[in-house]
Amino acid sequence: MRFKRNFLLLLVLAGFFTRSFSQKIDLNETSSGVDFLIDNQRVLTYQTKKEPVPAGVKEAFSKSGFIHPITSPSGQVLSRIQPSDHYHHYGIWGPWTRATISGREVDFWNLGDEKGRVDFSHVLSKKIAGGAAELNVRQHHIDLKAPESERLAIEEDLRIKVKPADKGRYLVDYTTTIYTKIPGGILLDDYRYGGGIGFRATELWGDDNSTILTSEGHDRKTADGSNAKWIIVKGKSGDKSGQSGILFLSHNTNKAHPEPLRVWPVGQYNGKGNVFIEFCPIRHESWEIQPNNRYTLKYRMIVFDGDLSAQEAEAYWRAFVK
After folding, report:
1. How many CA atoms lie within 13 A of 106 on its CB side?
2. CA angle centred on 267, ends 258 and 238, rounded to 5°
3. pLDDT < 50 regions, the chain
4. Which of 36, 107, 117, 311 has the fewest CB atoms in 10 Å of its CB?
5. For 62-114, how does the pLDDT look when each residue is reduced to its tens digit (9 = 90+)?
6. Nearest to 261 by CA among 243, 280, 237, 236
């Protein structure tokens, strides 16, 4: 069994490295964000400009600092922003929800409450090397109710790295490092949402045309609150195969690994456009952030058309952590 697993891992790595150097990788900075391109096709955008809100929606819901769109290799859009049921949902992003700072309760997630928010600050670096494109940015977690000296609660360095993978797929490394200068530190309170990496899927996916599978064998009905090394989210698409998806991987050095999940249950919002998943390291236990210490969470996404099996997911995870 071990030989079989190792052989599969070698096949994944061999295919990954062979293909990654045969495709053109590029970055394109625009007035609203930074596009990642493979063979001149945009595969994802990190948004640096605040996204305008629909007419009649509170301006506080406008934000920057998120990934959207993220597309499958054939160009199918897999993410969604500002859905009418949750205007604060933004494609792929990871703000903390409940936090305690100097005795105040701060919420960086629910923008409409106007207690806190997370936005893009500035680009730290960009590079193309080794068949990959990499973007490093600074994001600011703002405590809107704090005195000026504590208004900047958390500084976050986010690294996004894109590289082609085997079978026409591509990978995205999403590495977030947070730190605070507030003398008393910050307590990230345990809650079912917050931090890590969250994904609001395309409005085309719902109960009837999408599936979820975790490393521990859980599906959409049982995954919420469980722990996982990886989770596959896939659904119907316009690709010729009829299906596209994303495999999310959690690194084994992450807080609370294997990480707790927040997965919206079957039936949420009438079963349409209702796919949301998140690796949530503070779901079951609070996390104390000490001043001037750096805390890192590492994730990887494998974006695909067609299918991706549990065996392949396990091999990708082993390659990621090794």
Report:
1. 27
2. 80
3. 16-20
4. 311
5. 999 999 999 999 999 999 999 999 999 999 999 999 999 999 999 999 999 99
6. 280
Domain around 66: 2-321
Confirm if 172 and 73 have CB atoms less than 8 A apart: no
CATH of the domain at 308: 2.70.98
User: What's the rounded Cα separation, in Å, for the pair 56 and 97?
Assistant: 25
pLDDT at position 7: 53
Contact (Cβ atoms closer than 8 angstroms) between residue 38 and residue 23: yes
In sequence order, which residues have a C-beta less than 8 Å from that of residue 177 and are 6 or more positions away? 156, 157, 158, 294, 295, 296, 297
Pairing of strands 33-38, 25-29: antiparallel
Structural domain count, the chain: 1
Longest dimension (CA), the chain: 59
CA dist 18 to 21, 40, 51, Å? Answer: 6, 19, 38
pLDDT tens-digit map of 9-18: 555 555 544 4
The Cα 215–Cα 252 span in angstroms is 13
- Which letter does DSSP use for residue 51 in this model? P
